[in-house]
Known about the structure:
Layout: H1 4-10, E1 31-34, E2 39-42, E3 50-57, E4 63-70, E5 86-92, E6 98-100, E7 107-113, E8 119-125, E9 136-141, E10 146-151, E11 183-190, E12 193-200, E13 205-208, E14 217-224, E15 227-234, E16 237-245, E17 258-261, E18 269-276, E19 288-295, E20 302-308, H2 322-329, E21 333-338, H3 347-351, H4 360-375, E22 378-388, H5 390-401, E23 408-412, H6 428-433, H7 447-455, E24 469-474, H8 483-494, E25 499-504, H9 514-532
Parallel strand pairs: 20-21, 20-22, 22-23, 23-24, 24-25
Antiparallel strand pairs: 1-2, 3-4, 4-5, 5-6, 7-8, 8-9, 9-10, 11-12, 12-13, 14-15, 15-16, 16-17, 18-19, 19-21
Helix pairs in contact: 4-5
Amino acid sequence: xxxxxxxxxxxxxxxxxxxxxxxxxxxxxxxxxxxxxxxxxxxxxxxxxxxxxxxxxxxxxxxxxxxxxxxxxxxxxxxxxxxxxxxxxxxxxxxxxxxxxxxxxxxxxxxxxxxxxxxxxxxxxxxxxxxxxxxxxxxxxxxxxxxxxxxxxxxxxxxxxxxxxxxxxxxxxxxxxxxxxxxxxxxxxxxxxxxxxxxxxxxxxxxxxxxxxxxxxxxxxxxxxxxxxxxxxxxxxxxxxxxxxxxxxxxxxxxxxxxxxxxxxxxxxxxxxxxxxxxxxxxxxxxxxxxxxxxxxxxxxxxxxxxxxxxxxxxxxxxxxxxxxxxxxxxxxxxxxxxxxxxxxxxxxxxxxxxxxxxxxxxxxxxxxxxxxxxxxxxxxxxxxxxxxxxxxxxxxxxxxxxxxxxxxxxxxxxxxxxxxxxxxxxxxxxxxxxxxxxxxxxxxxxxxxxxxxxxxxxxxxxxxxxxxxxxxxxxxxxxxxxxxxxxxxxxxxxxxxxxxxxxxxxxxxxxxxxxxxxxxxxxxxxxxxxxxxxxxxxxxx
Length: 542
Protein backbone atom coordinates (compact mmCIF):
# COMPACT_ATOMS: atom_id res chain seq x y z
CA UNK A 1 0.00 0.00 0.00
CA UNK A 2 1.03 3.59 -0.58
CA UNK A 3 1.71 5.78 2.46
CA UNK A 4 -1.26 7.74 3.77
CA UNK A 5 0.31 11.04 2.70
CA UNK A 6 0.51 9.77 -0.86
CA UNK A 7 -3.11 8.65 -0.80
CA UNK A 8 -4.04 12.16 0.25
CA UNK A 9 -2.64 13.58 -2.96
CA UNK A 10 0.96 14.44 -2.04
CA UNK A 11 2.76 11.91 -4.21
CA UNK A 12 3.45 14.37 -7.03
CA UNK A 13 3.94 17.54 -5.02
CA UNK A 14 6.88 19.51 -6.38
CA UNK A 15 9.80 19.92 -3.96
CA UNK A 16 12.12 22.71 -4.96
CA UNK A 17 15.82 21.85 -5.11
CA UNK A 18 18.94 24.01 -5.01
CA UNK A 19 19.67 23.89 -8.74
CA UNK A 20 22.56 22.53 -10.76
CA UNK A 21 24.35 19.63 -8.99
CA UNK A 22 21.92 20.06 -6.05
CA UNK A 23 18.62 19.50 -7.78
CA UNK A 24 17.58 16.65 -5.47
CA UNK A 25 18.58 18.59 -2.34
CA UNK A 26 15.53 20.42 -1.08
CA UNK A 27 15.36 20.54 2.72
CA UNK A 28 18.55 19.12 4.31
CA UNK A 29 18.70 18.45 8.05
CA UNK A 30 21.51 18.30 10.58
CA UNK A 31 22.07 14.89 12.15
CA UNK A 32 24.16 13.83 15.13
CA UNK A 33 25.77 10.40 15.22
CA UNK A 34 26.43 8.79 18.60
CA UNK A 35 29.30 6.42 17.82
CA UNK A 36 28.91 4.58 21.13
CA UNK A 37 25.26 3.68 20.67
CA UNK A 38 25.37 3.79 16.84
CA UNK A 39 22.27 5.97 16.91
CA UNK A 40 21.47 8.95 14.70
CA UNK A 41 19.25 11.83 15.75
CA UNK A 42 18.03 14.84 13.80
CA UNK A 43 18.83 18.17 15.43
CA UNK A 44 15.68 20.16 16.04
CA UNK A 45 15.32 23.93 16.31
CA UNK A 46 16.99 24.72 12.99
CA UNK A 47 14.97 27.64 11.55
CA UNK A 48 12.48 26.42 8.95
CA UNK A 49 13.29 29.24 6.55
CA UNK A 50 16.88 28.07 5.93
CA UNK A 51 18.66 24.99 4.62
CA UNK A 52 21.56 24.03 6.94
CA UNK A 53 25.03 22.86 5.97
CA UNK A 54 28.78 23.18 6.64
CA UNK A 55 28.25 22.22 10.30
CA UNK A 56 30.96 21.99 12.98
CA UNK A 57 31.04 21.69 16.77
CA UNK A 58 31.04 24.89 18.79
CA UNK A 59 33.56 25.41 21.64
CA UNK A 60 33.19 22.73 24.30
CA UNK A 61 31.01 20.66 21.97
CA UNK A 62 27.93 22.22 23.57
CA UNK A 63 26.41 23.25 20.29
CA UNK A 64 26.71 23.27 16.52
CA UNK A 65 27.80 26.09 14.23
CA UNK A 66 26.32 25.86 10.75
CA UNK A 67 25.53 27.84 7.63
CA UNK A 68 21.89 28.43 6.74
CA UNK A 69 20.76 29.44 3.24
CA UNK A 70 17.48 31.36 3.05
CA UNK A 71 14.63 29.82 1.05
CA UNK A 72 12.86 33.10 0.44
CA UNK A 73 10.72 33.17 -1.58
CA UNK A 74 12.15 30.41 -3.75
CA UNK A 75 15.53 28.75 -4.12
CA UNK A 76 18.12 29.94 -6.61
CA UNK A 77 21.05 27.80 -7.76
CA UNK A 78 23.91 27.51 -5.26
CA UNK A 79 26.61 25.85 -7.34
CA UNK A 80 29.36 28.39 -8.17
CA UNK A 81 27.23 31.14 -6.61
CA UNK A 82 28.66 32.84 -3.52
CA UNK A 83 26.05 35.62 -3.63
CA UNK A 84 23.11 33.79 -2.06
CA UNK A 85 21.71 35.05 1.22
CA UNK A 86 23.13 32.92 4.01
CA UNK A 87 24.18 33.26 7.63
CA UNK A 88 26.34 31.66 10.32
CA UNK A 89 24.12 30.15 13.04
CA UNK A 90 24.82 28.63 16.45
CA UNK A 91 22.46 25.95 17.75
CA UNK A 92 22.77 25.28 21.49
CA UNK A 93 22.07 21.60 22.09
CA UNK A 94 20.80 21.81 25.69
CA UNK A 95 18.30 24.61 25.22
CA UNK A 96 17.59 24.33 21.51
CA UNK A 97 18.26 28.06 21.15
CA UNK A 98 19.40 29.00 17.65
CA UNK A 99 21.29 32.27 17.21
CA UNK A 100 22.33 34.13 14.07
CA UNK A 101 25.99 35.12 14.49
CA UNK A 102 26.57 36.96 11.21
CA UNK A 103 24.89 39.92 9.51
CA UNK A 104 21.25 39.26 8.55
CA UNK A 105 21.34 40.34 4.90
CA UNK A 106 24.68 39.06 3.68
CA UNK A 107 26.16 35.91 2.17
CA UNK A 108 28.18 34.37 5.03
CA UNK A 109 29.67 30.88 4.83
CA UNK A 110 32.68 28.59 5.39
CA UNK A 111 33.07 28.93 9.22
CA UNK A 112 36.36 27.76 10.74
CA UNK A 113 36.89 27.67 14.53
CA UNK A 114 40.34 28.38 15.97
CA UNK A 115 42.01 25.52 17.90
CA UNK A 116 41.51 27.33 21.23
CA UNK A 117 37.83 27.93 20.49
CA UNK A 118 38.16 31.68 20.91
CA UNK A 119 37.64 32.86 17.34
CA UNK A 120 35.48 31.95 14.37
CA UNK A 121 36.75 32.84 10.92
CA UNK A 122 34.40 32.93 7.91
CA UNK A 123 33.86 34.40 4.45
CA UNK A 124 31.26 37.03 3.68
CA UNK A 125 30.04 38.79 0.54
CA UNK A 126 27.21 40.77 -0.95
CA UNK A 127 23.82 39.27 -1.75
CA UNK A 128 22.87 39.54 -5.42
CA UNK A 129 24.94 40.93 -8.23
CA UNK A 130 27.68 38.84 -9.85
CA UNK A 131 27.53 35.20 -8.84
CA UNK A 132 31.19 35.14 -7.80
CA UNK A 133 32.68 38.21 -6.17
CA UNK A 134 35.58 39.44 -4.08
CA UNK A 135 34.87 38.45 -0.46
CA UNK A 136 35.56 39.72 3.03
CA UNK A 137 37.35 37.65 5.67
CA UNK A 138 35.46 38.10 8.94
CA UNK A 139 36.50 37.18 12.49
CA UNK A 140 34.10 36.64 15.38
CA UNK A 141 35.32 36.61 19.00
CA UNK A 142 33.29 33.79 20.50
CA UNK A 143 32.78 34.97 24.07
CA UNK A 144 32.12 38.63 23.29
CA UNK A 145 30.18 37.98 20.06
CA UNK A 146 32.13 40.80 18.42
CA UNK A 147 32.88 40.63 14.70
CA UNK A 148 35.56 42.51 12.77
CA UNK A 149 36.61 42.53 9.14
CA UNK A 150 40.12 41.13 8.84
CA UNK A 151 40.41 41.54 5.06
CA UNK A 152 38.06 43.72 3.06
CA UNK A 153 37.00 43.64 -0.57
CA UNK A 154 39.80 44.80 -2.88
CA UNK A 155 38.42 47.10 -5.54
CA UNK A 156 41.54 47.70 -7.61
CA UNK A 157 44.85 45.97 -6.75
CA UNK A 158 48.02 48.02 -6.81
CA UNK A 159 50.35 47.76 -9.77
CA UNK A 160 52.74 45.30 -8.13
CA UNK A 161 52.41 41.74 -9.46
CA UNK A 162 52.79 40.33 -5.93
CA UNK A 163 50.20 42.66 -4.38
CA UNK A 164 47.12 41.18 -2.70
CA UNK A 165 44.19 41.19 -5.14
CA UNK A 166 41.42 39.95 -2.83
CA UNK A 167 39.70 36.71 -1.77
CA UNK A 168 37.75 34.75 -4.40
CA UNK A 169 37.72 31.20 -3.06
CA UNK A 170 34.43 29.40 -2.45
CA UNK A 171 35.66 27.93 0.86
CA UNK A 172 38.44 28.18 3.42
CA UNK A 173 40.56 25.04 3.91
CA UNK A 174 38.89 22.70 6.47
CA UNK A 175 41.99 23.04 8.66
CA UNK A 176 43.31 26.57 8.17
CA UNK A 177 44.47 27.85 11.59
CA UNK A 178 48.11 27.92 12.71
CA UNK A 179 48.91 26.62 16.19
CA UNK A 180 49.23 30.18 17.54
CA UNK A 181 45.50 30.74 16.87
CA UNK A 182 46.46 34.05 15.32
CA UNK A 183 47.47 33.18 11.77
CA UNK A 184 45.29 31.48 9.16
CA UNK A 185 45.93 30.16 5.66
CA UNK A 186 43.81 30.18 2.54
CA UNK A 187 44.18 29.54 -1.19
CA UNK A 188 42.63 31.96 -3.67
CA UNK A 189 43.07 33.21 -7.22
CA UNK A 190 45.55 36.07 -7.50
CA UNK A 191 45.34 37.19 -11.11
CA UNK A 192 46.09 34.09 -13.24
CA UNK A 193 47.51 32.10 -10.31
CA UNK A 194 46.07 30.41 -7.26
CA UNK A 195 48.39 31.20 -4.36
CA UNK A 196 48.68 30.15 -0.72
CA UNK A 197 48.22 33.20 1.52
CA UNK A 198 49.02 33.62 5.22
CA UNK A 199 46.77 36.05 7.11
CA UNK A 200 47.69 37.64 10.43
CA UNK A 201 44.24 38.17 11.96
CA UNK A 202 45.51 40.69 14.52
CA UNK A 203 47.36 43.03 12.17
CA UNK A 204 45.15 42.28 9.11
CA UNK A 205 48.21 41.69 6.93
CA UNK A 206 48.68 39.18 4.13
CA UNK A 207 51.82 37.26 3.18
CA UNK A 208 51.84 35.42 -0.13
CA UNK A 209 53.75 32.22 0.60
CA UNK A 210 53.94 31.06 -3.04
CA UNK A 211 54.30 34.24 -5.11
CA UNK A 212 56.86 33.84 -7.85
CA UNK A 213 57.00 30.05 -7.59
CA UNK A 214 57.19 28.15 -10.90
CA UNK A 215 53.97 26.34 -9.99
CA UNK A 216 50.88 28.42 -10.76
CA UNK A 217 48.34 26.68 -8.55
CA UNK A 218 48.64 25.83 -4.84
CA UNK A 219 46.04 24.05 -2.73
CA UNK A 220 46.36 23.56 1.03
CA UNK A 221 45.21 20.11 2.11
CA UNK A 222 45.67 20.55 5.86
CA UNK A 223 47.76 22.10 8.60
CA UNK A 224 48.53 20.13 11.76
CA UNK A 225 50.87 21.44 14.49
CA UNK A 226 52.13 24.03 11.97
CA UNK A 227 52.99 21.32 9.47
CA UNK A 228 51.57 22.27 6.07
CA UNK A 229 50.51 19.69 3.50
CA UNK A 230 49.72 21.03 0.04
CA UNK A 231 49.63 20.23 -3.65
CA UNK A 232 51.11 22.37 -6.39
CA UNK A 233 50.84 22.14 -10.16
CA UNK A 234 51.41 24.06 -13.38
CA UNK A 235 50.02 23.77 -16.94
CA UNK A 236 52.93 21.48 -17.85
CA UNK A 237 53.22 19.71 -14.50
CA UNK A 238 50.66 17.43 -12.77
CA UNK A 239 50.09 17.99 -9.04
CA UNK A 240 52.90 17.21 -6.62
CA UNK A 241 52.44 16.59 -2.89
CA UNK A 242 54.63 18.85 -0.75
CA UNK A 243 55.10 19.68 2.93
CA UNK A 244 56.56 22.58 4.89
CA UNK A 245 56.88 23.67 8.49
CA UNK A 246 55.32 27.06 9.19
CA UNK A 247 58.01 29.26 10.81
CA UNK A 248 57.27 31.56 13.76
CA UNK A 249 55.37 34.80 13.31
CA UNK A 250 57.25 37.27 11.13
CA UNK A 251 59.70 34.68 9.79
CA UNK A 252 57.47 32.95 7.26
CA UNK A 253 59.52 33.80 4.17
CA UNK A 254 61.19 32.10 2.51
CA UNK A 255 59.12 28.97 3.13
CA UNK A 256 61.00 25.73 2.45
CA UNK A 257 58.85 23.12 0.72
CA UNK A 258 59.84 19.46 0.86
CA UNK A 259 58.49 17.18 -1.90
CA UNK A 260 56.65 14.08 -0.69
CA UNK A 261 55.52 12.76 -4.06
CA UNK A 262 57.21 14.81 -6.74
CA UNK A 263 55.75 14.79 -10.24
CA UNK A 264 58.14 15.83 -12.99
CA UNK A 265 57.04 18.24 -15.71
CA UNK A 266 55.56 16.73 -18.87
CA UNK A 267 58.09 17.09 -21.70
CA UNK A 268 57.10 18.89 -24.86
CA UNK A 269 55.01 21.67 -23.27
CA UNK A 270 55.90 25.23 -22.32
CA UNK A 271 53.65 27.92 -20.91
CA UNK A 272 53.66 31.60 -20.04
CA UNK A 273 51.36 34.38 -18.93
CA UNK A 274 50.47 37.03 -21.51
CA UNK A 275 49.50 40.54 -20.44
CA UNK A 276 46.96 42.00 -22.83
CA UNK A 277 46.80 45.78 -22.85
CA UNK A 278 43.69 47.52 -24.14
CA UNK A 279 43.17 51.25 -24.23
CA UNK A 280 39.94 51.60 -26.18
CA UNK A 281 37.50 51.03 -23.29
CA UNK A 282 36.68 53.84 -20.84
CA UNK A 283 35.30 51.22 -18.42
CA UNK A 284 38.13 49.77 -16.35
CA UNK A 285 40.88 50.18 -18.97
CA UNK A 286 43.15 47.84 -17.03
CA UNK A 287 45.17 45.11 -18.76
CA UNK A 288 44.02 41.53 -18.44
CA UNK A 289 45.82 38.22 -18.84
CA UNK A 290 45.85 35.00 -20.82
CA UNK A 291 47.79 31.76 -20.43
CA UNK A 292 49.55 30.39 -23.48
CA UNK A 293 50.42 26.68 -23.62
CA UNK A 294 52.66 25.68 -26.54
CA UNK A 295 54.23 22.51 -27.93
CA UNK A 296 58.02 22.59 -28.05
CA UNK A 297 60.17 21.81 -31.04
CA UNK A 298 59.60 22.20 -34.73
CA UNK A 299 59.79 25.27 -36.96
CA UNK A 300 56.31 25.24 -38.51
CA UNK A 301 53.74 27.60 -36.90
CA UNK A 302 51.21 25.73 -34.79
CA UNK A 303 47.42 25.96 -35.02
CA UNK A 304 45.74 27.80 -32.14
CA UNK A 305 42.86 26.66 -29.90
CA UNK A 306 41.26 29.62 -28.10
CA UNK A 307 39.45 29.04 -24.78
CA UNK A 308 37.47 31.81 -23.06
CA UNK A 309 36.33 30.51 -19.66
CA UNK A 310 32.73 30.20 -18.53
CA UNK A 311 31.14 31.78 -15.51
CA UNK A 312 31.69 34.48 -16.64
CA UNK A 313 33.08 35.30 -13.17
CA UNK A 314 35.63 32.50 -13.03
CA UNK A 315 39.31 32.26 -13.92
CA UNK A 316 41.80 30.09 -15.73
CA UNK A 317 44.58 29.76 -13.16
CA UNK A 318 47.93 28.26 -14.07
CA UNK A 319 47.11 24.73 -12.92
CA UNK A 320 47.45 21.32 -14.54
CA UNK A 321 44.62 20.60 -16.99
CA UNK A 322 45.07 17.20 -18.65
CA UNK A 323 42.89 18.05 -21.65
CA UNK A 324 44.86 21.22 -22.42
CA UNK A 325 48.18 19.40 -22.06
CA UNK A 326 46.87 16.67 -24.37
CA UNK A 327 45.98 19.26 -27.01
CA UNK A 328 49.56 20.53 -26.82
CA UNK A 329 50.84 17.01 -27.30
CA UNK A 330 48.68 16.77 -30.39
CA UNK A 331 50.47 19.84 -31.72
CA UNK A 332 48.02 22.63 -30.86
CA UNK A 333 48.90 25.83 -29.03
CA UNK A 334 46.22 26.69 -26.44
CA UNK A 335 45.21 30.20 -25.35
CA UNK A 336 43.26 30.44 -22.05
CA UNK A 337 41.76 33.93 -21.85
CA UNK A 338 41.03 35.71 -18.55
CA UNK A 339 39.03 38.60 -19.98
CA UNK A 340 37.97 41.53 -17.79
CA UNK A 341 35.37 40.21 -15.34
CA UNK A 342 37.52 37.23 -14.35
CA UNK A 343 38.19 36.44 -10.70
CA UNK A 344 41.46 37.45 -9.12
CA UNK A 345 41.82 40.95 -10.55
CA UNK A 346 39.78 43.03 -8.09
CA UNK A 347 36.08 43.71 -7.56
CA UNK A 348 36.10 46.63 -10.01
CA UNK A 349 37.16 44.26 -12.78
CA UNK A 350 34.29 41.91 -11.93
CA UNK A 351 31.72 44.69 -11.91
CA UNK A 352 32.95 46.30 -15.13
CA UNK A 353 31.50 43.37 -17.08
CA UNK A 354 27.98 43.99 -15.80
CA UNK A 355 25.76 45.29 -18.64
CA UNK A 356 28.57 44.56 -21.13
CA UNK A 357 28.37 40.81 -21.60
CA UNK A 358 28.42 39.90 -25.25
CA UNK A 359 30.47 43.01 -25.95
CA UNK A 360 33.41 43.60 -23.60
CA UNK A 361 34.16 39.91 -22.97
CA UNK A 362 33.99 39.18 -26.70
CA UNK A 363 36.24 42.13 -27.59
CA UNK A 364 38.76 41.17 -24.89
CA UNK A 365 38.98 37.59 -26.15
CA UNK A 366 39.48 38.71 -29.72
CA UNK A 367 42.16 41.17 -28.62
CA UNK A 368 44.03 38.37 -26.84
CA UNK A 369 43.80 36.23 -29.98
CA UNK A 370 45.17 38.98 -32.22
CA UNK A 371 48.03 39.68 -29.81
CA UNK A 372 48.97 36.00 -29.68
CA UNK A 373 48.86 35.71 -33.47
CA UNK A 374 51.01 38.82 -33.82
CA UNK A 375 53.79 37.88 -31.42
CA UNK A 376 53.81 34.06 -31.27
CA UNK A 377 54.70 31.41 -33.83
CA UNK A 378 51.14 30.52 -34.82
CA UNK A 379 49.27 29.74 -38.01
CA UNK A 380 46.62 32.49 -38.45
CA UNK A 381 44.72 30.33 -40.92
CA UNK A 382 44.15 27.50 -38.43
CA UNK A 383 42.41 28.92 -35.37
CA UNK A 384 39.67 27.12 -33.42
CA UNK A 385 37.44 27.84 -30.40
CA UNK A 386 36.90 25.50 -27.45
CA UNK A 387 34.58 26.68 -24.66
CA UNK A 388 31.59 25.93 -22.45
CA UNK A 389 28.64 27.79 -20.91
CA UNK A 390 29.31 31.55 -20.96
CA UNK A 391 32.62 30.86 -22.66
CA UNK A 392 30.62 29.20 -25.45
CA UNK A 393 28.43 32.34 -25.52
CA UNK A 394 31.60 34.35 -26.21
CA UNK A 395 32.77 31.81 -28.80
CA UNK A 396 29.47 31.99 -30.69
CA UNK A 397 29.71 35.78 -30.83
CA UNK A 398 33.24 35.46 -32.21
CA UNK A 399 32.06 33.02 -34.87
CA UNK A 400 29.45 35.50 -36.05
CA UNK A 401 31.67 38.60 -35.90
CA UNK A 402 34.91 37.06 -37.18
CA UNK A 403 33.69 34.29 -39.52
CA UNK A 404 36.96 34.33 -41.50
CA UNK A 405 39.20 34.05 -38.42
CA UNK A 406 37.96 30.73 -36.99
CA UNK A 407 37.97 27.43 -38.85
CA UNK A 408 36.39 25.14 -36.23
CA UNK A 409 34.54 25.27 -32.92
CA UNK A 410 33.67 22.83 -30.12
CA UNK A 411 31.19 23.94 -27.46
CA UNK A 412 29.89 22.41 -24.21
CA UNK A 413 26.40 23.37 -23.03
CA UNK A 414 26.45 26.73 -24.84
CA UNK A 415 24.48 29.83 -23.86
CA UNK A 416 22.91 31.07 -27.10
CA UNK A 417 19.48 32.54 -26.34
CA UNK A 418 19.37 34.70 -23.18
CA UNK A 419 15.62 35.34 -22.85
CA UNK A 420 14.87 31.64 -23.29
CA UNK A 421 16.88 30.94 -20.13
CA UNK A 422 14.60 32.99 -17.88
CA UNK A 423 12.20 30.12 -17.32
CA UNK A 424 14.63 27.22 -17.67
CA UNK A 425 17.77 28.13 -15.70
CA UNK A 426 18.32 27.71 -11.95
CA UNK A 427 19.84 31.22 -11.90
CA UNK A 428 17.29 33.47 -13.68
CA UNK A 429 18.63 36.46 -11.73
CA UNK A 430 21.83 36.31 -13.77
CA UNK A 431 19.94 37.05 -16.99
CA UNK A 432 19.05 40.47 -15.55
CA UNK A 433 22.21 41.23 -13.60
CA UNK A 434 24.55 40.43 -16.49
CA UNK A 435 22.87 43.10 -18.61
CA UNK A 436 22.75 45.72 -15.87
CA UNK A 437 19.02 45.22 -15.30
CA UNK A 438 17.68 45.26 -11.71
CA UNK A 439 16.47 41.93 -10.35
CA UNK A 440 14.08 41.03 -7.57
CA UNK A 441 12.25 37.81 -6.73
CA UNK A 442 9.00 39.49 -7.72
CA UNK A 443 10.20 40.63 -11.13
CA UNK A 444 8.49 39.27 -14.24
CA UNK A 445 9.85 39.69 -17.79
CA UNK A 446 8.99 42.88 -19.60
CA UNK A 447 9.06 43.42 -23.34
CA UNK A 448 11.98 45.83 -23.13
CA UNK A 449 13.96 43.32 -21.00
CA UNK A 450 13.45 40.56 -23.52
CA UNK A 451 14.48 42.84 -26.37
CA UNK A 452 17.77 43.69 -24.66
CA UNK A 453 18.45 40.04 -23.88
CA UNK A 454 17.70 38.91 -27.41
CA UNK A 455 19.87 41.64 -28.91
CA UNK A 456 22.82 40.30 -26.90
CA UNK A 457 22.13 36.68 -27.85
CA UNK A 458 24.34 35.06 -30.51
CA UNK A 459 21.39 33.01 -31.80
CA UNK A 460 20.08 35.97 -33.80
CA UNK A 461 23.39 36.18 -35.70
CA UNK A 462 23.83 32.42 -36.06
CA UNK A 463 23.22 32.51 -39.85
CA UNK A 464 26.61 34.25 -40.14
CA UNK A 465 28.48 31.25 -38.73
CA UNK A 466 30.69 29.49 -41.26
CA UNK A 467 32.99 27.32 -39.13
CA UNK A 468 32.03 23.69 -38.38
CA UNK A 469 30.50 23.43 -34.88
CA UNK A 470 30.55 20.50 -32.46
CA UNK A 471 28.01 20.66 -29.61
CA UNK A 472 28.43 18.58 -26.42
CA UNK A 473 25.24 18.68 -24.36
CA UNK A 474 24.25 17.39 -20.91
CA UNK A 475 20.61 16.35 -20.82
CA UNK A 476 20.40 17.01 -17.06
CA UNK A 477 21.89 20.52 -17.18
CA UNK A 478 19.89 22.80 -14.87
CA UNK A 479 22.01 25.91 -15.40
CA UNK A 480 21.92 26.15 -19.18
CA UNK A 481 18.98 24.22 -20.56
CA UNK A 482 19.94 21.67 -23.25
CA UNK A 483 17.23 23.24 -25.41
CA UNK A 484 19.72 26.08 -26.02
CA UNK A 485 22.00 23.73 -27.93
CA UNK A 486 19.09 22.01 -29.68
CA UNK A 487 17.80 25.32 -31.01
CA UNK A 488 21.28 26.33 -32.13
CA UNK A 489 21.81 22.94 -33.77
CA UNK A 490 18.67 23.35 -35.86
CA UNK A 491 19.52 26.89 -36.91
CA UNK A 492 23.03 25.93 -37.97
CA UNK A 493 21.86 22.86 -39.84
CA UNK A 494 19.22 24.92 -41.64
CA UNK A 495 22.00 27.24 -42.87
CA UNK A 496 24.12 24.28 -43.98
CA UNK A 497 26.83 24.76 -41.37
CA UNK A 498 28.61 21.45 -40.65
CA UNK A 499 27.25 20.67 -37.18
CA UNK A 500 27.39 17.64 -34.90
CA UNK A 501 25.59 17.26 -31.56
CA UNK A 502 26.59 14.83 -28.81
CA UNK A 503 23.83 14.14 -26.27
CA UNK A 504 24.87 12.87 -22.81
CA UNK A 505 21.73 11.58 -21.02
CA UNK A 506 23.29 11.69 -17.52
CA UNK A 507 25.38 14.81 -18.10
CA UNK A 508 24.97 17.98 -16.05
CA UNK A 509 26.35 21.42 -16.74
CA UNK A 510 29.99 20.47 -16.22
CA UNK A 511 29.86 17.13 -18.10
CA UNK A 512 31.94 15.45 -15.39
CA UNK A 513 32.82 11.80 -14.93
CA UNK A 514 35.71 9.80 -16.33
CA UNK A 515 33.83 8.20 -19.22
CA UNK A 516 31.98 11.39 -20.17
CA UNK A 517 35.02 13.66 -19.96
CA UNK A 518 37.08 11.23 -22.03
CA UNK A 519 34.38 11.05 -24.69
CA UNK A 520 34.00 14.83 -24.83
CA UNK A 521 37.75 15.39 -25.17
CA UNK A 522 38.17 12.65 -27.75
CA UNK A 523 35.42 14.05 -29.93
CA UNK A 524 36.69 17.64 -29.60
CA UNK A 525 40.24 16.61 -30.49
CA UNK A 526 39.07 14.62 -33.53
CA UNK A 527 36.90 17.57 -34.59
CA UNK A 528 39.91 19.90 -34.60
CA UNK A 529 42.11 17.37 -36.39
CA UNK A 530 39.41 16.89 -39.00
CA UNK A 531 38.78 20.57 -39.71
CA UNK A 532 42.19 22.14 -39.03
CA UNK A 533 44.37 19.33 -40.29
CA UNK A 534 46.99 17.47 -38.30
CA UNK A 535 49.43 19.91 -36.67
CA UNK A 536 53.20 19.63 -37.08
CA UNK A 537 54.64 17.21 -34.54
CA UNK A 538 57.27 18.63 -32.16
CA UNK A 539 60.31 16.81 -30.93
CA UNK A 540 58.37 15.40 -27.95
CA UNK A 541 55.04 14.88 -29.70
CA UNK A 542 53.33 11.53 -30.29
